[in-house]
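Letters spell out the chain; backbone shape is given numerically. Both lines appear below:
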Amino acid sequence: MRAYRFVNALGSAVETAGREVADAADVTSAHRGGLSDSAARVGIRVSEELLRQMARETAGLSLERAEFEARGVRVTDDSSPGTDPIGLDLGVSVHVDLPSYEATNVVLATVVHTSQIPAESAASEPGPIRDRMASLAERTSAAFLLVVDDAGTRAIPAQSLLALSEPISTQSIEQHLYGRSLGRFVEELAEGFVGVSRVGEDQQALALDPEREGQLRDWARATDLQGVYALRISETRPRTESSLSAFLD
């Protein structure tokens, strides 16, 4: 099986997930007029929904010689002290274990809905988004802002965001920054073009196992995250032949 088949299947599934987030979390333009939740709650909602949608779209995918296992885990509850009015800090881990290719790549990301970003430059900057991105960037070079809107979800590198000479706003992001679609971003994560093999100087490369929820929760807490999405792509397990000829061979 050529590598691009699992990459394309992954990208398509994750792109679908990225489009479903805002609608499933009830924060699309159609709903926003009656939205009474605080900004922090909107960020939590889209973060939780992103984890759920990514896991839903990728768990159980199967190709001729590759199968996908995925899980999204939310670690802390809504009452966590000091929650900024944006989304949660998440870890995204992709482990590929195929005969022709093996890799583990991880990124850290903060999720934000576009309704939480000022439309135009504001004098109050630096604000919570820049502060959160600076905190993640201090921990790893693989830090990103995941921006959710009605059309989909985009990934913007923290370093690019922090390099903006003007305050962060939807206007400055659109004019000066390039964001990958979520599907393409996760494709590049699987291919090794983005991400790191470990987070923290003392940690070995960690292949998170979607079937071990306790491991995911322990890793998220140790890495000071509020959620984690883990994907493992492995060679399809051989099926037991049930025919008489199989027993005779």
About this structure: The chain has one domain: 3-248. The longest helix spans residues 3-24. Confidence is low (pLDDT under 50) at residues 32-36.
